[in-house]
Amino acid sequence: MSNITAGMVKDLRDKTGAGMMDCKAALNETNGDMEAAIDWLRKKGLSKAAKKAGRVAAEGLIGVASHDDAGALIEVNSETDFVARNDQFKDFVKSAAHLALDAEGDLEKLLAMRMHGGGSVQEVITDMVAKIGENMSVRRAAVLGVAPGIVASYVHNAIAPNLGKIGVLVALRSEGDKQKLAALGRQLAMHIAFAAPLALKPEELPTDVVARERAVQADIARESGKPENVIEKMLEGRMRKFYEESVLLSQIFQSADSDGKTSVAKVVENLGKEMGNPVEVTGFLRFAVGEGIDKGPESDFADEVSKMAGH
Q: Distance of alpha carbon 126 from its chain centroid, rounded?
């Protein structure tokens, strides 16, 4: 068998737009013959899928899979919400989310895993692209675990159990009553879906985010014309407010029966006292469909029709 190099795989990918794993498989099947590999991809329908790969896929679903002490989130994108509501698409996301638990959030490992009664995750979604006619991709996956304790989950705008537009996992470490932990965990997951914290603790905030916010708030404070020592105190107050809004444990707990004054950290501490076992939030994950994807310029449907008609 010919020695398949990373460069050969890259060249084939550049020529066809097919996935890296598909290109590697094609070269292996054709003993490194580039033209034969291109034909192999075409025969498998992968070149048809590749033509659609340049189109923006910013719709889709978040899938959640969890058990007591671990959970997984996965985002699978499509071009339209119509396809995201297709039963085949929903079944795929649900199955892939469960596999993501075993893959420990490793996307490359997940894509290579075999699905029940079919090929790999990558092969199955590539086949769906060819059949349905829309670009689709498994964009990301992550897992969260804790011991002892529980990982709670919540899906916002759910269209089916554990499938929706926003998915959240939150890990609570404790040896206390698991039912009480699960109840608070779900409330915290709902809070996270709504409040969208950037980090668990202040020290976990990205340094560039903090620096940018501090620079903005410093400029605003200086517009007051006050002395520098006063401005520094103003800045401390403004950054404290930023942390209260951006850091989970510092945020005011939001729930149907909250008092609108108590922080998340205090709510967690109170449950620990009630159970006689301390509770610690060790981490959280929040996925929202399409976040961070550049969707490009908004198109006007009427304008597009007009252009197609030659007006």
A: 20
